[in-house]
């Protein structure tokens, strides 16, 4: 369990659905701000073992792009990699650098460098009202109460949600809570935003609305997903398989290879197997 101060505010369906998501991906790509920053990160021989289980296996990778996707099956290690990149988890061996820092060793710099949007907003939100939730990260960054309040207001206005300031978070829908988490992260102006399965559990209209909110992200983006549809428009994609880097390259190169392998596995019945 990650403590709140460490929870840096960063975190073959029906054809019609696929079509809508594709349209949305195209819309998203066109709306992306061309001045967006790039993510630079490098992992050198990164291994991570937790509770005697090897989760990341000798991952060596270097990337420098505006938007990087990370794809992989359930349990392949994507979320763990996101935690490593944000500095929430220290590696067992190897070296991690993102945005010019080692995020686990330099926590203060990490708060200003990387924001992470988690899969489940209920794991991220702890304050009763929207404005308190957004203010928290800003206060952690060292802003005065007044500056934090101004930045909260500005962020809400940027998202056309000024009327949400006093709203009780527990009364919001999952999609609305996810948007609160996103606003909390962006208010802090991180250089890099990590999105960890941000559409998980959301219905299609909510996904589309959240995807539009992502277009307001000027920071570089690392987007983690098991669904290749979400990463089609990304500059670079890493495929993580059983804790190791299986492939890296353009979305056009990696995603078809990933889909082919997923279909091959889907034809078989590996759900029958137990893993260690
Ligand atoms: N603290 C831990 N101790 C032991 N095993 C863990 C721990 N955290 C994660 N794991 C295991 O490590 C593997 C990778 O988990 P992780 O959550 O990083 O995968 P993921 O690709 O994000 O999966 P999903 O898509 O299902 O969210 C899984 O088998 C998980 O059960």
TrEMBL record:
Residues 41-267 form the ABC transporter domain. Coiled coil: none annotated. Its EC number is 3.6.3.-. Keywords: ATP-binding, Hydrolase, Nucleotide-binding, Transport. One of its GO terms (molecular function) is ATP hydrolysis activity. Pfam families: ABC_tran. InterPro entries: AAA+_ATPase, ABC_transporter-like_ATP-bd, ABC_transpr_CbiO/EcfA_su, ECF_ABC_transporter_ATP-bd, P-loop_NTPase. The keyword Transport applies. One of its GO terms (cellular component) is ATP-binding cassette (ABC) transporter complex. It is an enzyme of class 3 (hydrolase). It comes from the Bacteria. CDD domains: ABC_cobalt_CbiO_domain1 (cd03225). PANTHER family: HEAVY METAL TRANSPORTER. This is Biotin transport ATP-binding protein BioM. It comes from Pacificibacter marinus. The lineage of its organism: Bacteria, Pseudomonadati, Pseudomonadota, Alphaproteobacteria, Rhodobacterales. The gene is bioM.
């Amino acid at each position: 369990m990650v403590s709140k101060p460490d929870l840096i505010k960063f975190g073959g369906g029906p054809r019609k659905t696929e079509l809508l998501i594709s349209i949305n991906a195209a819309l998203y790509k066109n709306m992306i701000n061309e001045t967006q920053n790039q993510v630079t990160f490098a992992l050198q021989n990164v291994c991570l073992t937790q509770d005697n289980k090897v989760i990341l296996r000798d991952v060596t990778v270097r990337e420098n792009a505006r938007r990087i996707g990370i794809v992989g099956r359930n349990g392949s290690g994507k979320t763990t990699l996101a935690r490593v990149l944000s500095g929430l988890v220290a590696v067992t061996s190897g070296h991690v650098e993102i945005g010019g820092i080692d995020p686990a060793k330099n926590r203060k710099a990490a708060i200003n460098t990387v924001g992470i949007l988690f899969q489940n907003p209920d794991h991220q939100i702890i304050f009763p009202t929207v404005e308190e939730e957004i203010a928290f990260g800003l206060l952690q960054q060292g802003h005065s109460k007044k500056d934090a309040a101004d930045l909260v207001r500005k962020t809400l206005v940027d998202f056309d949600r000024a009327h949400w300031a006093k709203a009780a978070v527990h009364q919001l829908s999952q999609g609305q809570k996810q948007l609160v988490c996103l606003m909390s992260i962006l208010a802090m102006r991180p250089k890099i935003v990590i999105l960890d399965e941000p559409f998980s559990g959301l219905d299609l209209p909510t996904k589309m609305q959240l995807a539009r909110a992502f277009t307001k992200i000027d920071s570089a983006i690392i987007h983690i997903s098991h669904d290749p549809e979400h990463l089609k428009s990304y500059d670079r994609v890493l495929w993580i398989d059983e804790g190791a880097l299986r492939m890296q390259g353009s979305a056009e190169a990696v995603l078809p290879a990933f889909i082919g392998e997923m279909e091959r596995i889907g034809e078989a019945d590996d759900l029958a197997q137990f893993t260690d």
